[in-house]
Design the sequence.
């Protein structure tokens, strides 16, 4: 155990060219950790609050840093995160900003790992097991809030469920991404990439399903293991109460129609994963869909749960979803994120550790996924801020 002796905060760039918070934590015995906050675009209404970077830094300097420096041990993550909560004093980090909180929390964890001479995932209490590993869900076609004039569904995700290793899974997703690019070219569809590096063509969702099915099958044949696919529908972004339901351009589906539509998609495409198929306030419709397809696919709550144990409890009670997306910056600290994972596992919900659309080269979530033995990690396919996590997973596997 080693005392935190310095915490410094600065403004750095994220992958969208926006500013974000970077934290450096130093300890008495020479330990050092550095981490950066990611940032969402299709953020859930109930997430912890991200403040403008200059405000978050100023507030954390004033109230959080004095409670950390000379006061807490970098090796004791619970103590660090309790100090962040005490400094903030709200239940959503609206005083110091979830962006400052999560950067400090993750930097302290890395400093603790440095002092212990352990990789971060081991410091967080995990081991790389090899027989199970986090399967990367890779966004290969996307639209919604992440790209203008593209698909209505936010993310079409490759899921190499039969991959024998992390390395092969990561390369399979990259191959699906490449294959999708080739199919688009053959079809004469020009395409740029969205915020997460997925192709963002101006096509209907139905064409995206065709292309995904073809690309996944071609690559599965090449690599010789099973690859399926899934979706993040970002239902809260599609939902417009005034319009009477889920808006897909000119077409609007009411809640019952949306449940039917998603259940049909699961059936038709053998989807392995459906995230936020419904609005973030509609636990009931989530429960209905889970009842219908939960034995065949993961119904995952992102904006529904926002990595928040209280919202997860409500889901467990109602049978809404059977999986939870875990984004440390949605809740503000690593300890809170781990609590959500543990509560999920106890209740038979599969945790999926996730990046945000605005990312950095920070690879903490790769370690969090291994530490918690999560069955999935959602962290993109290509692009430096995505490969930072994927390559870290490959290194963890190789050194195991
Ligand atoms: P976000 O999108 O980071 O923009 O919120 C990712 C997601 O919805 O999973
Ligand atoms: Zn999502």
Sequence:
């Amino acid at each position: 155990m080693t005392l935190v002796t310095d915490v410094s905060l600065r403004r750095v760039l994220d992958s969208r060219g926006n500013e974000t918070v970077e934290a450096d934590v130093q300890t008495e015995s020479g330990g050092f950790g550095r981490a950066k906050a990611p940032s969402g675009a299709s953020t859930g209404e109930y997430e912890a609050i991200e403040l403008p970077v200059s405000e978050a830094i100023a507030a954390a300097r004033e109230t959080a840093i004095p409670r950390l420096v000379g006061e807490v041990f970098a090796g004791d993550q619970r103590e660090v995160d309790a100090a962040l909560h005490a400094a903030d004093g709200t239940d959503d980090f609206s005083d110091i900003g979830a962006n400052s909180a999560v950067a400090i929390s993750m930097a302290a964890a890395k400093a603790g790992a440095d002092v212990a001479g352990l990789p971060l995932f081991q410091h967080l209490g995990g081991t790389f097991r090899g027989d199970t590993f986090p399967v990367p869900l890779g966004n290969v076609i996307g639209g919604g809030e992440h790209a203008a004039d593209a698909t209505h569904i936010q993310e079409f995700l490759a899921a190499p469920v039969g991959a024998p290793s992390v390395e092969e899974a990561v390369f399979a997703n990259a191959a699906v991404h490449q294959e999708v690019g080739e199919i688009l070219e053959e079809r004469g569809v020009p395409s740029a990439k969205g915020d997460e590096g997925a192709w963002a063509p101006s096509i209907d969702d139905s064409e995206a399903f065709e292309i995904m099915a073809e690309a996944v099958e071609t690559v599965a044949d090449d690599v010789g293991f099973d690859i399926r696919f899934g979706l993040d529908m970002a239902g809260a972004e599609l939902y417009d109460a005034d319009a009477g339901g889920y808006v897909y351009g000119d077409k609007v589906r009411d809640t019952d129609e949306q449940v039917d539509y998603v259940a049909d998609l699961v059936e038709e495409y053998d989807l392995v994963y459906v995230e936020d198929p419904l609005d973030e306030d509609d636990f009931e419709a989530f429960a209905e869909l889970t009842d219908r397809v939960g034995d065949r696919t993961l119904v995952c709550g992102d904006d529904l749960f926002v990595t928040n144990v209280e919202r997860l409890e409500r889901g467990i009670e109602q049978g809404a979803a059977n999986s939870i997306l875990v984004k440390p910056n949605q809740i503000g600290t690593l300890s809170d994120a781990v609590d959500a994972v543990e509560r999920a596992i106890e209740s038979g919900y599969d945790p999926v550790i996730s990046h945000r659309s605005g990312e950095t080269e920070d690879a903490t979530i790769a370690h969090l996924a291994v530490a918690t033995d999560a069955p999935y990690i959602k962290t993109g396919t290509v692009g430096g801020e995505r490969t930072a996590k994927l390559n870290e997973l490959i290194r963890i596997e190789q050194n195991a």
Summary: The first strand starts at residue 4 and ends at 13. Residues 40-43, 232, 234, 302, 354, 356-357 surround 2-phosphoglycolic acid (ligand 1) (CB under 6 Å).
